[in-house]
Amino acid sequence: MPELPEVEVTRNGIVPYLKQRRIAAIIVRNRKLRWPIPECLDAVLRGQQIQTIMRRGKYLLFVVDTGTLIIHLGMSGSLRILMHDNHPVVEAPGLHDHFDLITEDRIVMRLRDPRRFGAVLWHQGDALQHSLLRDLGPEPMSEDFNAERLYEQSRGRKSSIKTMLMDSHVVVGVGNIYANEALFQAGIHPSVAIGRIGLCRYGKLVREVRAVLQKAIQAGGSSLRDFAHADGNPGYFQQQYWVYGRAGLPCLTCDTAIRQIRQNQRSSFYCPDCQH
């Protein structure tokens, strides 16, 4: 599923086409996503100007005059800007193209979501107070995500470090792929109990989480399953994986075979020599 880098890459791709433009129409072809798309959306958004587009965790926030359009890409969603040679084009919608946002100059942003686990929601007022957003943990690139915070939250607990790293109440946007990669770079076994990790190792982990996410954003994200950029092109970070999806292959650092285990119904990949 799209993780923080993919959502940030999507945001970067659509901002130049949509920021400060006015919405001419909303087209909804299928309201049955994870939550029903509000029936009032076209009437509410028509004529409003998109002031800015922000990201909070894996949510995209389209801030307009009177509130915020909230979009989540779910398991398989993607947003595309329909342009050719810098001119708007009209493409016939496909089976999984459920939602269009159309600007007054005919630029179309289209949501494609084959599995329909995504969301298109409306919130009047401060979107950060929406029930889906207000209890989220800090952004991984922010100062609030730090070694001291992780150390304090881990004391007296037996949860594994990978489970903690993927908890959106602890830090947002670190999904399975990037948790595996960051733990490898930090030299920490994914199943180590969080209470056994000291402050210095948490400091290294924080630095590696940030570095891995930044590299993924620069590489355009990953192209697992359905993810593509706003222009339809794939991401390339999967070509830089150190452990994810490499079970049985030699570690790129020490040649030991990468192992795979299951944690909370998700696959974890690690090097038994490099991670302890």
Summarize the structure.
The chain has helices at 4-18, 41-45, 147-154, 161-165, 176-186, 199-218, and strands spanning 23-28, 52-56, 59-63, 67-72, 78-84, 87-88, 97-103, 108-112, 119-124, 259-263, 266-270. The chain is of the alpha+beta class and 276 residues long.
Structure description:
By secondary structure, the chain is of the alpha+beta class. The protein folds into two domains: 4-129, N-terminal domain of MutM-like DNA repair proteins; 147-270, Helicase, Ruva Protein, domain 3 (Orthogonal Bundle). 23% of the residues lie in helices and 21% in strands. The chain contains six helices and eleven strands. It has a five-stranded antiparallel β-sheet with strand order 1-7-8-5-6. The model is unreliable at 223-230 (pLDDT under 50).
